[in-house]
Amino acid sequence: MSKERIGVYVCHCGSNIAGTVDVAEVSRWAGEALKDRGVVVSRDYKFMCSSLGQELIQKDIQEQGLTRVVVAACSPHLHEQTFRNACKEGGLNPYLCELVSIREQCSWIHPDKAVGTEKAKAIVSGGVEKVIWDEPLEPLRVPINPVTLVVGGGIAGIQAALEVANAGYPVIMVEREPSIGGHMAQFDKTFPTLDCAACILTPRMVEVGSHPNVKLFTYAEVTNVSGYVGNFQVTIKQKARSVDTDLCTGCGICQEKCPKKVIDPVFEAGLGYRKAVYTPFPQAVPKYPVIDRENCTYFLKGTCRACEKFCPTGAIDFTQEDEYFTVDVGQIILATGWDLFDARRIPQYGYGRLANVFTSLEFERLTNAAGPTGGKVVLRDGVTVPKSVAIIHCVGSRDKNYNPYCSAICCMQSLKFAHLVHERTGAEVYNFYIDMRTPAKGYEEFYQRVLEEGTHFIRGKVAEITDAARYPGEEGKLIVQAENTLVGKQMRVPVDMVILSAALEPRHDFKEVARLFGISCSEEGWLIERHPKLDPVATMTEGIYIAGCAQGPKDIPASVAQGAAAAARVVGKIQQKEITMEPIRASINQDKCSGCRICNNMCPFNAISFIEDRMVSEVNPALCQGCGTCVAACPAGAISGTVFSDQAILAQLDGLLLNNLKAIDLTPA
Amino acid sequence: MKYSYFPGCSLERNASAYHVSAMAIAEPLGMEFIEVDDWNCCGATEYISLNLTASYALIARNLAQASKETSTKQLVAPCSACYLNLKKCDAYMKESPSLEEKINTALAAGGLSYKGGTLKVRHLLDVVVNDIGYDAIAAKVTKPLKGLRVAPYYGCMIVRPKLGENGTFDNPEYPTTLDKLLKVLGATVIDFPLKAHCCGGHMTQISESTGFELIRRLIKGATDYKADLIVTLCPMCQLNLDAFQGAMNSHFNTSYHMPVLYFTQMIGLAFGMDAASLGIGTELVDARAALAKIGVEVPEAELVVKKPPKEALPMPSMPEEK
Q: Which residue from A336, A649, A285 is spatially nearest to A513, judged by alpha carbons?
């Protein structure tokens, strides 16, 4: 017999639960069968989460002197906070309230009412046994460092950094490339309004570069993250620029004089050249160039030093070494962006074999006024203007062989390409699509405009792009073979140029990034948000936010919106000055810990560290998210979690399995 | 390395050159082939569409026979159709217990049984490039095929469809193993865009014009790329491109001349073997001119005139043509 006075509340959730669970019966049963376990009140109610439902609990706490509350309703993800608050209002410690799910784990998955009712009883019984073990807890409070780290200087990161900086708080931005700007800086025009990408982006870049609240690290990477929300320590590796930024004026003479020309695989997408000492593009922020040591003649052969000779301020410094800085930050926004799908993985599309097959990023550079052809749309020979161009959508997207997801931007991007080809060459344009997806503001109108311009739209997935002529008229052309699914016929379209709208993929090092920051990523590699609809920029790790394409493929407006949203979350937290944290934590019994360190690497939040001098592991309570992985893993049973101690879990299992229940017949009637 | 060997019907007749050359290169490459005892037809391409269970039972009988061999669990088929059928049957039996049970009921009538996944079904090309390896082959090349432009032709059955856990040994849309092999042998390999297109299969028997069109595309493609010859790995492909080339030419009123040889014959030539010992000279579209480029002489096939037996009755004399 428990000395607690427990109240059980069974929710109908309209018909969500009551449809497959006899809630009145569950409530009646709990009141009678669990009486000797301490249940003094048991009620059912249409919507427990409503104000009236909550008042019901509060009234019972006060009038019946309840010491524990079990609510059988939906998943704790949704309403745990609601009922804890209700208990708190009623004068009970909120952590003495247990929410058990009889909706997601019961009514929604059982078609049979008798089975559902019996299972709901078992779940309630488990909840009652568990709540007996619950302890009153107080939330943890930690002060927050107002400095924010933004990783990635694309448009999403830029937006986030500026929002935070303009709110008056310091920002540290880390960018891997020599300049910020990201993929957007590579584009010429942006859909659907055809604004010049540089015209709208570069003012933001300049603002980041000169903002008094922003400290910018370019050509740098984050190599280590420790600490917890409000108090992270981040190690930044500043790769050796070989240029003294205090002396460099950004005049560009070094780039002019450098004799070593190399293909630029990053900014020019492999379609153009740069020097071994370079800034990726003229509007680069910061203006200081870097020396690419893998290609620099001096670093390869020990001679040359042309840049050093001609530099008017003596800023070239071949002796520079990588530097490591450790900074303290309160919160982190990850805006690490995307990589382009390698179109060579679809050999039948001929990219890499057939000269005039281009990727979408290559074509962006081709149309860019500052690109390798000065914005002229020409074939790979650099002079011939194409008379016909095919644009293939969904290359590597929506294809179970490569990426199952839709890359979201390709339809609009392909429409933009169609428009630009049409405008600049007058060529016939053929768009091969699976479905046209133009859902955002102004997008459908742009589609109509491109249709009116006379672009041919062929609904069908391209089977092959070949230079093997079969019929007269095909010689010397690229032939696009596809089934036109609207007509139901195979067709061969000979064209001069093919553009592959390749998929957006997670950064190649997404695993490393996820591990470094202690967050999780989806099967494909996109960083996972806390909730796909209601919490799209937070992660399961407190204090770390995601924005832009790191979270999933999206266009510029959506990336900017996410950057701003993440910034709003960050600023909101900073203004609270301290952070309230759930007190649900694991702790290690130092006497039982054998120092085996099994838990150290298992913790997804890097919350466990090994204390060398005492040879035991310790949980950092501010970092621990209470997931329980270490509790289960500890071979010595030395770790226990508040709210989910071994005793509490075993008691809950006992309740689920043993407590006077009829044997449940799971065969539906 | 020991392998069970499933020749298949065509290697006994029209593709005997493939069989002869495969046997000729086996020894220098260190492959030992043990022919499956009492094997039967794999059902080729048509039978499966008529009666699935019966056709799988027909194929599975070969698997059951081959699995009796204790010294190796690797079954090699040089013919792409045989390879695909055997591999499909093995994979589906492993995947579907109900199919396995049905087939074994049929096999039991002959006192046989087979469990899906027991054997590893391999194509000869897969074995040559992956087990033996390009380096080992390169080491044996004594007469590189220098100056010979070849079009590597895989056909459609060797790498498609993806079957089983490990899928296929090469890219299903644009395979490259034969390309690499021929490069190792010293030939100039063209990047043949039609390498995995269909040769028409048995279309020449069902719809002549369709078959001819498919053959035309391949022969025209190789000719456009200035190939001296097409190298293939499938008796069906070889038959269509070689034996029907003349008929195709007269159908379209064209005059293509594109010899078609097997990759095993090319390996043999690069190893310095005698052309006749590799079955070269039995092809219908003469490869003599092409092979002369690399200094290979192909002896004129001897015209064998059989003397009629003594008991033979005289032939009727035909009227003179006017």
A: A336
Cα-atom radius of gyration of chain A, to the nearest Å? 31
The boundaries of every CATH 3.30.70.20 domain in chain A are 586-642
Angle at A295 between CA A376 and CA A249, to 5 degrees: 75
Pull the structure tokens for residue B254.
Answer: 């064209």
- Distance, CA of A156 to CA of A154 (rounded, Å): 6
What is the per-residue burial (b if ≥16 Cβ within 10 Å, else e) of B131-157? bbebeebeebbebebeebbbbbbbbbb
Determine the distance from the C-alpha atom of residue B276 to the mean position of all C-alpha atoms in its chain, rounded to a whole number: 18
To the nearest whole Å, the CA of A396 is away from the closest chain B CA by 14
Nearest chain A residue to B191 by CA: give it: A353
- In DSSP terms, A611 is beta-bridged to A616
Q: Is the pLDDT of residue B280 over 50?
A: yes
DSSP B129: I
| Structural contact between residues A254 and A289, judged by C-beta atoms closer than 8 angstroms | yes
Confirm or reject CATH 2.160.10.10 for domain A586-642, answering yes or no.
no
**CA-wise closest residue to B283 among B301, B270, B296, B264:** B301
Work out the mean pLDDT of chain A and round it to a whole number: 93
| Domain A241-321: CATH class, spelled out | alpha beta
CATH 3.20.20.140 fits A340-505, yes or no: no
Topology, domain A6-137: Rossmann fold (3.40.50)
Query: What is the CATH architecture of B140-292?
Result: 3-Layer(aba) Sandwich (3.40)
Q: Which residues pair with A324 in a beta bridge?
A: A237
Residues in chain A predicted with pLDDT less than 50, given as ranges, are: 663, 666-669
Query: What gap in Å lies between CA A562 and CA A567, rounded to an integer?
Result: 8
Give me the residue from B171, B173, B221 closest to A468, CB to CB. Answer: B221
Q: How confident is the model at residue B122 (pLDDT cuts 50, 70, 90)?
A: very high
Angle between helix A410-425 and A443-452 (nearest 10): 40
The segment(s) of chain A belonging to CATH 3.40.50 are: 6-137
* H or E segment to which residue B151 belongs: strand B149-152
pLDDT tens for each residue of A459-499: 999 999 999 999 999 999 999 999 999 999 999 999 999 99
With an 8 Å Cβ cutoff, is A353 touching chain B? yes
Class of domain B2-123: mainly alpha
Q: What is the ipTM of this complex?
A: 0.71
**CA-to-CA dists, residue A564 to A160, A207, A208, A560, A568, angstroms:** 5, 16, 14, 6, 6
CB neighbours of residue B130 within 10 Å: 13
3-class secondary structure per residue, A323-364: EEEEEEECEEEECCCEEECCHHHCHHHCECCECCEEEHHHHH
Chain B residues with CB under 8 Å of A476 CB are none
Domain boundaries, chain B: 2-123, 140-292
Backbone Cα Rg of chain B = 21
Q: pLDDT by residue (tens digit) across A481-491?
A: 999 999 999 99
Tell whether A64 is within 8 A of chain B (Cβ): no
Looking at chain B, list the stretches that DSSP marks H as alpha helix, in order from N- to C-terminal side.
16-26, 47-50, 52-67, 80-95, 97-108, 124-126, 134-140, 177-184, 203-206, 208-224, 235-238, 245-252, 263-270, 288-292
Q: Name chain A contacts of B218, Cβ cutoff 8 Å.
A: none
**Is CATH 3.10.50.40 what the domain over A141-239+324-337+516-578 is classified as, yes or no?**
no
Nearest to B262 by CA among B243, B285, B279: B279
